[in-house]
Design goal:
Blueprint: E1 3-5, E2 10-12, E3 15-18, E4 28-34, E5 40-49, E6 52-58, E7 69-77, E8 79-81, E9 90-92, E10 109-111, E11 122-123, H1 134-139, E12 150-152, H2 158-168, E13 179-188, H3 190-202, E14 209-215, H4 226-240, E15 244-250, H5 252-265, H6 279-287, E16 291-293, E17 299-307, H7 316-324, E18 327-330, H8 333-337, E19 350-351, H9 367-391, H10 398-415, H11 425-436, H12 449-456
Parallel strand pairs: 9-14, 12-17, 12-18, 13-14, 13-15, 15-17
Antiparallel strand pairs: 1-7, 2-3, 3-6, 4-5, 4-7, 5-6, 8-10, 11-16, 16-17, 18-19
């Protein structure tokens, strides 16, 4: 039974407090409205202490006082209606349509907090998702069911990269009809959101994309619910409709900033850089919703994008993300300044699940060896370039000069590709072999003799 209360104890920012409550539940949805019903907002119970409750308002709280509002407890958690009709639609941070389409009508309502996946029921991720980007597909392959974040910095083209991945991402032709993408934009500007929408329309992929957008001028508290709405849609499509879903979120740093603001409003003891001590568990609750479940065909693969303040990879948000996820893709400001797109810094980047989703039967039998050799050779070339800056390139050995030539070709031909250039995994691996031919054959110590003979000949 719904209960309505007319007197608030305290209003501070987006937080309101009430007392003398009965049978109120944690995470319960709250409807807040003015006495004449001219204003209506949604909130959620975030703390219970005996007969007192703290409610977080998802919306603009200006004008709220302790006596001019009524609060109604809905006796249910925050839920969203779900059906396959969400494909091709655009929603706001609370799951309401903003694309001039109709509301979603369905008998299925799902809790945005998700359903915990039993660790025993988790299926180990296999099979790769082709992004069409050589640096990712060849060297840090995205595996279906994986969590692979992109660590970026202010001003770097992470949004452009995200749009390209959405346009080009695909799985094997056998399952392509069951492939969908959920895109969550958190705290973005209007022109950035319009950029994503127009890119997806022009590429003809809008019908397989579900978008949840929280604008920069929307209430900051909505940013806490956007990723949960997106992941709820992904779980529905994956585990109810047996689809393979790729979730891309930009930018999780905005989510962390909203968490810090809520924590400050609740007067919690701050941790590193003012972030709450529960930042790790909050991020884990999002990231761990990705995966595959034994006995179900669908999968949820997650690519969260984080902008690192001052390009600091030890900042709490990317630092904690690295503990939870299975690798990272790091963007380089230096490569971006030199005209490389996408500016993926491959040396600190990795995919921990890559080894189990590539090779014969998945990509190609030479994938693991080529990837390992490209990593090793590029790392060696970076060291040679640093040495040449000290002693001069004229003093280098012939072998070292070959590594410098390899590095330049690798950055210009392998890392660099056009925004509309979609390379297959075969094209990526063939390009890798072409680059390895620059180096002395005896330096290719990460490749088996059989593969050398097959792809390099005599």
């Amino acid at each position: 039974m719904k209960k309505e209360y007319l007197l608030l104890d305290k209003v501070e920012g987006s937080i309101i407090e009430l007392s003398n409550l009965h049978d109120v539940s944690f995470d319960e949805v709250v409807k807040i409205s003015s006495a004449d019903n001219s204003r209506q907002m949604i909130g959620q119970v975030i703390k219970i202490d005996d007969d007192k409750a703290t409610v977080q308002v998802f919306g603009e709280s200006l004008g709220i006082s302790t006596k001019n509002m009524k609060v109604e407890f809905e006796a249910k958690p925050f839920t969203l209606p779900m059906s396959k009709e969400i494909l091709g639609r655009v929603f706001d941070g609370l799951g309401r349509p903003i694309d001039k389409g109709t509301d979603i009508y369905s008998e299925t309502f799902l809790n945005v907090n998700g359903r915990p996946i039993n660790p025993v029921a988790r299926l180990y991720p296999r099979n790769f998702i082709q992004t069409g980007i050589s640096s990712i597909d060849g060297l840090m392959t995205l595996i279906r069911g994986q969590k692979l974040p992109i660590f970026s910095g202010s001003g770097l083209p992470h949004n452009k990269l995200a749009a390209q991945i959405v346009r080009q991402a695909k799985i094997s032709s056998k399952g392509q009809d069951n492939f969908a993408i959920v895109f969550a934009a958190i705290g973005v500007k209007h022109d950035e959101a319009n950029y994503f929408i127009e890119q997806f329309k022009s590429a003809g992929v809008s019908e397989k994309v579900v978008m949840y957008i929280n604008y920069a001028d929307d209430p900051i508290m909505e940013r806490l619910i956007v990723p949960k709405c997106a992941l709820t849609a992904a779980e529905y499509l994956a585990f109810e409709k047996n689809m393979h879903v790729l979730v891309i979120m930009s930018d999780l740093t905005s989510y962390g900033e909203a968490l810090r603001e809520v924590s400050s409003s609740r007067e919690e003891v701050p941790s590193r850089k003012g972030y709450p001590g529960h930042l790790y568990s909050d991020l884990a609750m999002l990231y761990e919703r990705a995966g595959m479940i034994r006995g179900l065909e669908g999968s949820v693969t997650l690519i969260p994008i984080l902008t690192m303040p001052n390009d600091d990879i030890t900042h709490p948000i990317p630092d904690l993300t690295g503990y939870i996820t299975e690798g990272q893709i790091v963007l380089s400001r230096e490569l971006n300044a030199s005209g490389v797109y996408p500016p993926v810094n491959i040396l600190p980047s990795l995919s921990r699940l890559m080894k189990d989703g590539i090779g014969d039967g998945y990509t190609r039998e030479d994938h693991a060896d080529v990837s390992s050799q490209l990593f090793a050779s590029y790392s060696n070339a970076v060291e040679v370039r640093a040495l040449s800056q000290i002693i001069g390139s004229e003093e280098l050995s012939e072998s070292d000069k070959k590594f410098l030539e390899f590095q330049e070709a690798f950055e210009k031909r392998f890392l660099t590709q056009g925004f509309n250039e979609n390379r297959s995994i075969e094209q990526t691996l063939d390009l890798g072999w072409d680059l390895l031919k620059i180096l002395p054959k005896e330096s290719l110590d990460r490749i088996s003799p059989e593969l050398k003979e097959k792809y390099l000949g005599d």
